[in-house]
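Researcher: Go.
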Amino acid sequence: MKKAYLENSGRYINDLLRFDYFSKNANLFSNGFIPLGIGTVFLCVIGIFGFYRFNIPNENLIIFVSAVVIGGYMALNIGANDVANNMGPAVGGKVISVASAVIIAAICESAGALLAGGDVVQTVAKGIINPGDNIEVHDFRGLMLSALLAAALWVNLATYLNAPVSTTHSIVGGVLGAGIAAAGFGLVNWITMSKIAASWVISPVFGGIVAATLLFFIKSKIVNVSDRKKAAQKWVPILIALMASAFVAYMAMKGLKKIWQPSDTQVIFYSVTAFFLAWLFSKPFIKRRAEKLSNNKKQIYTLFNLPLVIGVSLLCFAHGANDVANAVGPLAAIVSTFTSASVESKVTLPFWIMFIGASGLALGLLLFGPKLINTVGEKITKLNAPRAYCVALASAITVLIATTLGLPVSSTHIAIGAIFGVGFLREFLENPDKKRLRPGHKLNHSASESFKNVNLRLRRKLVRRKFVISIGAAWVITVPASAILAAFLFFSSQHLGVNF
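Model: Structure:
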């Protein structure tokens, strides 16, 4: 027994040393010029591909190649910024390493983009402008190119500043600003814009409430009871079944919506079926796992590891299927104008454009994603497996609720709001200074000293307030910042006499 224990300890220490070595080298890699070099090579390759692959008239060749390169640049930035919201909690909960998160997310994002990204895309993001007969084809090209570049630059800056922002809102702001610059305020669908603005509040609040509710349930039914093993055997299979049901509905309504559109009755049927099947199969699995564990909290937490990894993988798949359009949608719109004399509301999405989007997402994540994954997972509040599980499940449930109610929400805002919700619930339920108030500890302080200690405890927080302010500010200014930058780029191109 002792020999086996020493052997296992040795392997565990060696694994830690190897992980530490990898982490140090990964940090050197992410902070150096290598990622920038690889990203530049990627943009050069797709630019050369666009230059030689298509028979574009010489007068339009520069615009065409620029659109391809900027589309790839936007895809890199989406991979670097947006994907962190899905994988960050799992990393912060110490369920998977940053390296594992990056690899899993890159595979799932690419698969989602290529398999479920759809073959038709709207030419204008979220229908926020109505081109119709109000804008010429050459102005439309300039509009979309300016919008795409402005959104990419804004997301790039946000990533550099460690601020997770909505890439959808970035492209929406870009199209809004460039559209106004091109044809005035009458071009904008202000009803749609007002709904998007409302989502700045709706998304994080919904996500925070759902995540906090789930965590409160886990704490009251599993974590804070005397017999945690017995409680886990009863409730964890139900929670896994809830996640299975939610994610079946999530994939049907969002993740696969571009290639499969089931009826409401079908979605309900598949979700209910998934609930009972997941409960049926997870119950004996959890029972076997729990019997091998002690009654310790950290041991019980490990029961959430596998469903959490599956959940965040599905979130990445759905994200790749949906948000790749933020990069390649405007690119497809520009490309379509070279083969059509008018601006179409929807255009076919060629495989080569989708491949650029998918590869850009994966590469951006691999090269620049770890930094923001650490921020989301570790710097807002302390996470563990159950808390991260609540964040992932809350993201899916909130999207389902919002979709059913017809509310436009941001998956980025939901995930970050869920993390804040988990942190604020912990502040409400837990005493950050509980070690000072351990049983049997005598407090021999004067009244003034005691009052000072109470104030000290009240000032200690479990959520870092500076991230609440910085991330909230980034959310609020994303649309106007992208809009102003896009309008500036469009006016500059017109002033310089660029022929689109």
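Model: Residues 6 and 31 are 37 Å apart (CA to CA).
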